[in-house]
Amino acid sequence: MINNIKLSPLISDGMVLQRNAEVKIWGKAIPNESVTLNFKDKIYNVKSDKDGCWEVVLNDLSPGGPYKMIINCGTEKKEINDIMVGDVWLLGGQSNMELPILRTLDLYEDEVKNLKNPNIRHFIVPISYNFHGPQDDIREGNWISVNPEDIYEFSAIGYFFAKVINEKYNVPIGLIRTAVGGTPAEAWLSKETISKFKKFHSSLDKCKDDNYVKNTIEMEERRYNKWHIQLNKKDKGLSENSMAWFSEEYDDSGWDTIYLPKSFEGTDLEEIKGSIWFRKEIYLNEEPTKENVKLILGTLVDGDETYVNGVMVGDTEYRYPPRRYSFPGEILKKGRNIIAVRLIVTHNIGSFIEDMPYKLDLGEYQIDLTGQWKYSIGGRMEKLEEFTFFQYKPTGVYNAMIYPLRKYNIKGILWYQGESNTEYPYDYTEIFKAVIEDWRNTWKSEELPFLYVQLTNFEDPRDGNRWCHLRERQRRVLEVPNTGMVVTIDVGEYNELHPQNKKAVGERLALWAMNKAYGENLVCSGPLYKSHKTCGNKIQIFFDYVGSGLVCKGDKLCEFTICGKEGKFVEADAVIEGDTVVVSSSKVDSPVHVRYAWSNNPESANLYNKEGLPASPFTTEELK
């Protein structure tokens, strides 16, 4: 059967249409032919153009559903079912916005189990890029709702945000996720805007060469596959001439021992690239009664293959996902059991990340896996060079993942990004402002709410203090009208780039949405630096969003520093006086500037408002 009516994947079963707005439904049909659209007992007639393109505008839809839409052209009919009318929010940025519920189950497994809410929907835009210009449509995708099978695919931040808004306003919520892990802000800019930033020109010019892109991808895939093939051949633990090292019968009595978890930095394993095997004996007093058990191994650097009693129970190719491997309890047995981990170190220093859970969860009880493990080097390799991720390059994902959505009316934008710009944070304010302007122009809405997340607390010694520099530049983007910034320095994890507490982030974004998009007069933020004045040997700091008042969570305010004209910051005394904070130090007679929470991981920061929202890090200095 010939399909003469073609629609965007967005216009499909389960979609959410924006209420009280100009909603476009568009597609392709037979050229110069009448197209009829029937929705909510109203009929719309339009004629397709010479290329078959057509568009219908639906105005002032009231919230509700589910509804059916029928589109006719000639003898053909297209039916779209289970349509809701409510509010649609776009989710943009990188991995922390992309992060699915599945990656947060340490915190939320019981909360999301068996959830069902047809009034919260989610659409994932497939990862794609195009360096030649904006493309007209996305290639695929479908709407899903909150149910026990699909909830794990939802953006965790998106779900917790939508839950609050849905409960508050009793309207369906649609989430369109465009976030792509690892993308810097410039990847989300249009060609016209990127032309204002000269440092990106050469990269864009190279990526316009299709042969360069194609050849690079093919070459790097060959290199990756060759590296792993060679490692498997070299790996003594996989040798066909001897017993495999993951076997429970293998004799590891001659292996060295190591205390895990730990980084291999400063150890004999620091320089090892290739495979390192680790084995640990555990003893069970009885056979597990639970049908499925879970092996929890924190986070490992870089990849792993993990076995229990000779059976592979899970594997992960790269460093970031938490290792949570469920497997049938029948693999375990009463008495001696062997856990074997083949750690594959490609380019980083290997590590079992510290201060994370390492245990065997048997339901009725747990076995701690920290402590002594045995280890042996399986195979040594040269460092594996990383991939050229073309989705990180300027304009690519904007052209393929943002511009094609331009006709789909949305309520606002939620953004979580910045980690990939910390290498050079000093121009982030200009780049991020350009993203906001670009996206608002794309949707032809100068006041489209743009709500974003400031980088959370995270400790990476290699970054110096670049994270706090980027946070400050994020804070200063608040001067753009109808923006809001969620502060998260109290909900991160110093050792985890992807902290699991996405509920707090989603709920704080919802507070900003209530204020900026729904017109609620409420306290939507913690204290934000507004101004300061020098009073002798003290500096008084004034704030916006004081709420019901400033509070210190602790005995005294921490993380304040102060400097004189020489620019050397020292630890300062800080006290709350009314709705201000007064900062001083006996080491600085004539203070000039104050900083607050000025580090990658300001774990002692404790200035809040009485509504329980944390103050943003700041510096009173002019930005260079």
Q: Overall mean pLDDT score? A: 96
Stretches where pLDDT is under 50 for at least 5 consecutive residues are: none
Q: Any idea what the CATH architecture of the domain at 234-380 is?
A: Sandwich
Distance between the termini: 63 Å
User: Do you know the CATH topology of the domain at 234-380?
Assistant: Jelly Rolls
Determine the fraction of residues in helical runs and give it as a percent range.
10-25%
Question: How many strands, what sense, and barrel or not for the largest sheet?
Answer: 11 strands, mixed
CATH top-level class of the domain at 234-380: Mainly Beta
State Rg: 27 Å
In CATH, the homologous superfamily of the domain at 234-380 goes by the name: Galactose-binding domain-like
| Apparent shape | globular
Structural class: alpha+beta
The number of distinct helices, counting runs of at least 4 residues, comes to 10
Descriptive notes:
The structure is a single chain. This protein is an alpha+beta fold and 624 residues long. 18% of the residues lie in helices and 33% in strands. The strands form eight sheets. Strands 2, 4, 5, 7, 8, 9, 10, 11, 24, 25 and 26 form an eleven-stranded mixed sheet that branches. A hairpin with a 2-residue loop joins strand 4 and strand 5 (42-47). Helix 3 (156-169) packs across helix 10 (502-516). The radius of gyration is 27 Å and the shape is globular. The mean pLDDT is 96.
